[in-house]
Design a protein that fits this description.
The protein has about 500 residues and is of the alpha/beta class. It is built from 18 helices and 14 strands. About 30% of the residues are buried.
């Protein structure tokens, strides 16, 4: 059986980091667990690849016998090339111990056109490298390549009725860029193969390559020696500067002295961490509270996004609201009321979403959110897509105020917030009895994936469980806001003497 030492995937990992390549091939058991978000990204890429085949239909799909056994796939590809098959999907090529699979290969007379499919909305340097290694291997197998293109998502496409995949996808030739990479590619292939034949793991310090262009699959393994409260936890500091500090011996926040240049918020984070004291700008907080007008609505949205737009007047990856939670207090000491909405998964979620929201939020009182840019943007998109709601939704927007403001401006800050003003950090610092840790859905990205799962789920028990988890998560978001505001209102504001 023909053997390979490198694949397209491993080559790309080598371009990111020698250690990443070596561990990927020889120590796969050290990989970090794959997250649900990563699984969703992989699945999305696979589905987009299959959909893109409709751009160039009628092809033969090449499939290996099993994972790691590519003899049949290589033989099938060679046969299809020899008979000049019109279109080949997942064509396999092996040269000099390097194996690649090409998404779509199209007959162009005596030559061939190659297409690589991506679920992104633009072409990255990594995509060019991906195409270049395919060109190198297939070309050295005797396949003459007339053009090489990237197929990617056109984020300007707006769905109206039927899905038109010729408008959904953009096709762009990268042939010149792919050819220009060939001069360095041979040397890199040789270097990577020699590296993989070594008996020891390459010594590579952690660095910016750990997350660029993607987070390394062995991030947890390589970063396990980074101490708690490291300089990497300093907020809004460029990663380059963090590594400069770390590599110079300044590894933790405690190691930072007054001579190191920091922004105002970074200096606050460091000083509060060292002293254990809290920052409390009572006047600033009082001004914020004075500006709030009861009755108060505490509001939070959840959204999902798909590469292929599902509904009319939507674009690829558009944030589609499907759920909200609203807690209501008529006055500061009033009983708390709760309203919620979770759309069904069998149609456009936006109209029932906004119609229910307009019923639940009356015409009087401020609407408190956490990070108002998100909710306001979603509301403006509703106006754009459904102009008949413009007057009512604009009225809502005019009443929105941001509970994130006092924490973003460091009017109140504790070391437990770890430099962040995210509600996920602020809540446990102010109200330790409340936590997202016990929830099955504990963050927005997971909520988005869970609702997307409902679009294809047929198990009624599973559907019920997911919907229950979504409601619990969104409800906690607005209840957390209630408790955070109560904390701010409980601060003892001393009047001037």
């Amino acid at each position: 059986m023909k053997k390979h030492l490198l694949s397209k995937s491993s080559y790309l990992k080598g371009k990111q980091c020698d250690k990443h390549l070596y561990l990927y091939v020889h120590k796969p058991e050290l990989k970090d667990p794959i997250t649900p978000m990563q699984q969703a990204v992989f699945k999305r890429g696979t589905n987009i690849g299959i959909l893109a085949q409709e751009l160039l239909p009628g092809g033969v799909v090449i499939k290996p016998d099993s994972f790691g056994n590519y003899e049949k796939a290589l033989g099938q590809t060679e046969s299809m090339i020899n008979i000049k098959m019109d279109v080949i999907y997942e064509a396999a090529f092996l040269y000099d111990e390097v194996i690649v699979f090409s998404d779509i290969v199209v007959n162009d007379g005596d030559k061939w056109k190659f297409y690589e499919v991506k679920s992104s909305t633009s072409i990255s340097d990594t995509n060019i490298t991906d195409a270049a290694i395919q060109y190198y291997v297939a070309g050295n197998c005797g396949v003459e390549i007339s053009d090489f293109s990237i197929i990617y998502i056109n984020n300007e496409y707006v769905r109206q009725g039927k899905l038109y995949i010729n408008e959904l996808f953009s096709i762009e030739s990268v042939m010149d860029l792919v050819v220009s990479e060939q001069q360095n590619l041979t040397g890199e292939v040789s270097r990577f193969k020699n590296l993989l034949k070594q008996s020891k793991v390459p010594e590579v310090k952690i660095g910016e390559q750990c997350t660029n262009p993607y987070t390394c699959a062995f991030y947890g393994h390589c970063w396990k020696y980074v101490p708690p409260n490291s300089v990497f936890e300093i907020s809004n500091m460029h990663l380059t500067k963090k590594f400069e500090l770390y590599n110079s011996g300044i590894k933790t926040i405690n190691d930072i002295n007054s001579e190191i240049s920091l922004s105002r918020n970074q200096r606050i984070q460091v000083e509060v961490f060292k002293s254990g004291d809290e920052i409390c700008d009572a006047n600033g907080i009082q001004d914020f509270l004075t500006d709030l007008n009861y009755p108060l609505y505490f509001m939070d949205f959840e959204t999902f996004q798909t590469a292929v737009p599902l509904y009319n007047n939507t674009k690829p990856y558009q944030q589609i609201p499907f759920q909200y939670s609203v807690h209501f207090k008529e006055y500061q000491t009033a009983e708390l009321n709760h309203f919620e909405f979770l759309a069904e998964s069998d149609g456009d979620t936006r109209i029932p979403f906004i119609e229910n929201l307009l019923k639940d939020i009356k015409a009087k009182g401020d609407i408190l959110v956490y990070n108002k840019a998100f909710e306001i943007t979603r509301l403006k998109e509703i106006i754009r897509d459904f102009p008949k709601y413009s007057e009512q939704v604009n009225s809502l927007i005019s009443r929105v105020k941001d509970l994130m403001y006092p924490f973003q401006k460091k009017l109140y800050y504790k070391r437990e917030m770890k430099g962040s003003h995210s509600i996920k950090n602020v809540l446990p610092a102010l109200v330790p009895s409340l936590s997202y840790d016990e929830l099955n859905i504990g963050e927005g990205s997971m909520a988005s994936l869970s609702f997307e799962q409902l679009l294809h789920e047929n198990d009624f028990i599973k559907i019920s469980e997911i919907r229950k988890d979504l409601l619990e998560y969104c409800k906690l978001d607005t209840f957390a806001m209630v408790k955070i505001l109560e904390f701010l209102e409980s601060i003892n504001f001393k009047k001037p003497q």
